[in-house]
Specification:
mainly alpha; 49% helix; elongated
């Protein structure tokens, strides 16, 4: 007498899953911290140097906060809700349609 085994359950891959919200927030905070560190360095260098370098570092220190905020608020990209959904077939077969007035 042979025993039949139940089919193995289907295993779903998560390789296409997005990163967690905590990981996403951590990455954005790290990018913001790096940008603000560069801004602080630009302020220090604007004090140290003279001439056109002073104004270049000062301009960078003024512009960097805007760039840092835009980059930090970029956040996650939302997936297209229609991608991946393909109905197998029509659930209700078509027949004669009645027009309701």
């Amino acid at each position: 007498m042979r025993h039949t085994h139940a089919p193995a359950p289907e295993v779903h891959s998560i390789t296409g899953a997005q990163t967690s919200l905590d990981d996403d927030l951590h990455g954005r905070m790290k990018r913001y911290l790096v940008s603000m560190s560069v801004r602080t360095l630009c302020f220090v260098l604007a004090v140290v140097f003279t001439g056109w370098l002073r104004w270049t570092f000062a301009a960078a220190a003024i512009i960097l906060p805007y760039v840092a905020v835009v980059a930090a608020n970029a956040g996650r990209s939302r997936p297209d809700p229609l991608v991946g959904y393909v109905p197998a077939e029509r659930a209700i077969e078509g027949g004669q349609r009645r027009r309701m007035d």
